[in-house]
Design goal:
The complex is a heterodimer of chains A (316) and B (378). Chain A is built from nine helices and eleven strands. With 316 residues, chain A is α+β, with helices and mostly antiparallel strands. Chain A has two domains: 63 residues; 237 residues, Alpha-Beta Plaits, CATH 3.30.70.20. In chain A, the strands form five sheets. Chain A has a three-stranded mixed beta sheet with strand order 8-1-11. In chain A, strands 2-3 form a two-stranded antiparallel ribbon. In chain A, strands 4-5 form a two-stranded antiparallel sheet. Chain A is globular and about 85 Å long. With 378 residues, chain B is mostly helical. Chain B has two domains: 49 residues; 284 residues, Formate dehydrogenase/DMSO reductase fold. Chain B is 67% helix and 1% strand. Chain B has 13 helices and two strands. Chain B has a two-stranded antiparallel ribbon with strand order 1-2. In chain B, helix 3 crosses helix 7, helix 9 runs antiparallel to helix 11 and helix 11 runs antiparallel to helix 12. The radius of gyration of chain B is 21 Å and the shape is globular. The chains are: A alpha+beta (316), B mainly alpha (378). At the A-B interface, helix 3, helix 4, strand 6, helix 8 and helix 9 of A face helix 1, helix 5 and helix 6 of B.
């Protein structure tokens, strides 16, 4: 039987409509991703942080990151202004004076890679230079694969990956949770050096339970808080201030392996309100709907070849 | 007798020399970029990792270069052979546009010496929209040169080679329709990932569809614009009978686009943002008003016969469509925390150099290769 061109076109149009009806963009999301089996991460508790920036120093030392200089001539060491190609970890302060951990007063926040459960940067990277370890879930960077397209920077909802703008041979830089230390059984430097336990390293499941435990604490009472590693026995006693009743990073964009607790709303600390479904899931859903197994593109290509060949033959 | 002719004439005209000067300035800054890094010539930063090199050279540039795609669609799929005089100039514009977009990507990406990693299967990330776009555009550049090859073979009278190529050319024509459909929509999908960093006036699940429609709209507008400008510049008769017929399609396409675009923003509840008097709202209105103006002009058959109105409508479509794409990639993009971006002079000159190179290549090709239809002697 000969398929007439008009019929074929009708078929193509109809399947396009069917596809559109089945998969409106809003429904095209793919399922959320699960936490990797041995996921590790950090629980940062803003109410325990004293803003000493020892973690910044520990991070620079362990990862051989250069110092920041505000003044190009003096070359004096300066506090970094923000995360940059030279700074993978930073403690920032909201507010100047007054009561700690109150909206009118001040609070600290430590920023670095969130190690998302469904990382946008990993999905964005065309050459698998950014990958999520299937075991511990750490998102690492491989400069040998990277082509420097910077789609990871566009895609990251937290603006974490940075680019060496002033180098002729630039790299992307980001926190890799000190994976070189993890490989030797150690923990991330920022947590190891934190004097108060504000940065706490550990398996994400345990960190989530710890965060829930803290949210249930009675304000004004004293409790034991683990220091450095949730699996160590070292504890410190702290008086509990008021927590905002939310674990940031538990659900945001499908969740992350870095979790935050704070005494002031997270939006004040530069952590935006985000939906629970990641943008990756939506983008992937639409891509899968169109490109799964390359079936639709190949069918269309076959149809096009058929039509055009017929036409060219007729011309001759 | 051949149906097409090379225009001939002097190549080193004043416009050609001006373009050459701009290209030289651009090359100087490109050299600087390779020695001192991207930061030495560009204002791009960690908040705005993509500047005009991506937003204009690639995202808008390849849409302008969809002339070939749009014409191929109508000639080959909808079997309107009457438009074939428009095929060669359109293909040529596409070939230049895409090739130069490909070249500007090389100096935009930081680790260009590893660019071949895209083609290494063990590094391919099949989930990455960027991977698909890069592969598609790379292949399409090749396809465009193959599609255009018969023109060059004409020139060198390589008839045997041409006959051999003509036997398989349908594969390239088919790919030439499939590939832009894929990557032009994916250029929209790409910005889905920007999520909350992109203003809700532009961020939408319909980004892929809207990008595909703007590619076709801009493509046809570029055909009309190119044909009218070439007629005036080279003192040739205007191809009004073809252009007015093509433009009869446009009100439908524009209508479809505007309904989806406005209804999508409306249903998500962000339409009030358009009227808040801010920069983003005003740009949103301007972008859509330009396209609406083109729709209104072209909706009346009498207007489609007027070269002047046709020219105005094509400019409105080029501007409106390009603005939509530009705004999606730069103006509507705000990473938060106060990052700013405005292109630097050197960065702009690299883009100007690209445009000038395109104009030079166009002039060179139409004068030396049989691209434009042969005029019948009266």
């Amino acid at each position: 039987m000969k398929i007439r061109r008009r019929d074929f076109l009708k078929g193509v149009a109809a399947s396009g409509l069917l596809l559109a009806a089945e998969q409106t963009p809003a429904q095209a999301k793919r399922a959320r991703k699960d936490l990797p089996p041995n996921a590790v991460g950090i629980l940062y508790d803003s109410t325990l942080c004293i803003g000493c920036k020892v973690c910044e120093h520990g991070c620079k030392e362990t990862n051989n990151m250069p110092m920041e200089h505000a003044n190009p001539k003096e070359r004096m060491w300066d506090n970094p202004q923000d995360l940059s190609a030279k700074t993978l970890n930073i403690v920032k302060r909201y507010g100047v004076a007054g009561e700690k951990d109150s909206v009118e007063g001040f609070a600290f926040i430590k920023r670095h890679c969130m190690h998302c459960i469904d990382p946008a940067c990993v999905s964005a990277c065309p050459v698998s230079a950014l990958v999520k370890n299937p075991e511990n879930g750490v998102v690492t960077y491989n400069k040998k694969a990277c082509i420097g397209c910077r789609y990871c920077q566009v895609a990251c909802p937290y603006n974490i990956p940075k680019f060496q703008w002033d180098s002729p041979f630039p790299e992307i830089t980001k926190c890799q949770l000190c994976s070189h230390l993890l490989a030797k059984g150690g923990i991330s430097a920022c947590c190891a050096v934190c004097p108060t336990g504000a940065s706490l390293f550990g398996p994400v499941e345990k960190l989530r339970l710890e965060a829930k435990r803290r949210l249930a604490m009675e304000p004004g009472e004293y409790y034991d808080f683990p220091v450095a590693n949730i699996e160590s026995t070292e504890v410190q006693q702290h008086r509990v201030g008021g927590y905002v009743k939310h674990v940031y990073g538990e659900r945001e964009l499908g969740g992350s392996q870095v979790l935050y607790l704070a005494g002031v709303p997270f939006a004040n600390l530069g952590l935006p309100d985000l939906p629970e479904d990641s943008y990756v899931a939506l983008a992937d859903g639409i891509q899968y709907a169109i490109y799964k197994g390359m079936v639709y593109p190949l069918v269309v290509l076959g149809g096009l070849i058929y039509i055009i060949r017929n036409r060219e033959e007729k011309k001759e | 007798m051949q149906e097409r002719q090379a225009l001939g004439g002097k190549l080193l005209t004043v416009p050609f020399k001006v373009c050459a000067a701009i290209v030289l300035i651009g090359l100087f800054f490109i050299g600087k970029r390779f020695i001192f890094g991207i930061g030495s010539v560009s204002n791009m930063n960690d908040g705005y990792p993509w500047g005009i090199w991506i937003a204009y050279d690639v995202v808008v540039g390849t849409a302008l270069a969809c002339a070939g795609y749009s014409i191929a669609l109508i000639v080959y799929v909808f079997n309107k052979g009457e438009y074939s005089p428009l095929v060669r100039p359109a293909l040529m514009t596409s070939m230049f546009g895409y090739t130069l977009a490909g070249i500007s990507v090389i100096f935009d990406i930081g680790r260009y010496w590893q660019a071949y990693n895209i083609f290494l299967p063990w590094l391919s990330n099949l989930h990455s929209v960027m991977f698909e776009v890069a592969l598609c555009i790379g292949t399409y550049i090749l396809v465009l040169w193959m599609e255009f090859a018969p023109v060059m073979l004409d020139k060198f009278k390589a008839d045997q080679l041409k006959a051999r190529l003509n036997r398989i050319i349908f594969v390239f024509i088919a790919l030439g329709i499939l590939l832009p459909t894929m990557h032009q929509s994916s250029l929209g999908t790409m910005m889905l990932m920007a999520g909350h960093k992109l203003s809700p006036l532009w961020w939408s699940g319909f980004l892929p569809l809207l990008f595909l429609i703007t590619a076709v709209v801009i493509g046809y507008a570029a055909v009309i614009f190119e044909s009218l400008v070439a007629a005036i510049a080279f003192k040739r008769p205007m191809e009004m009978h073809l252009l007015s017929k093509i433009s009869a399609l446009m009100p439908w396409l524009l209508g479809l686009y505007l309904v989806i675009r406005l209804e999508d923003v409306n249903l998500r509840g962000y339409l009030p943002l358009a009227f808040d008097g801010g920069l983003l709202g005003n740009l949103f209105l301007l972008e859509n008003l330009l396209l609406l103006a083109a729709l209104l002009i072209l909706a009346y058959p009498a207007n489609r016969q007027s070269p002047r109105l046709l020219f105005i409508a094509s400019c409105a479509m080029l501007l409106g469509g390009s603005m939509y794409r530009f705004n999606t990639y730069i103006v509507g993009f705000d990473p938060g925390t106060g990052w700013q971006y405005f292109p630097s002079v050197s960065e702009l000159f690299i883009t100007f150099g690209i445009i000038a190179a395109e104009v030079m290549a166009y002039l060179w090709f139409v004068k030396t290769l049989p691209v434009l239809p042969r005029l019948k002697k009266a």
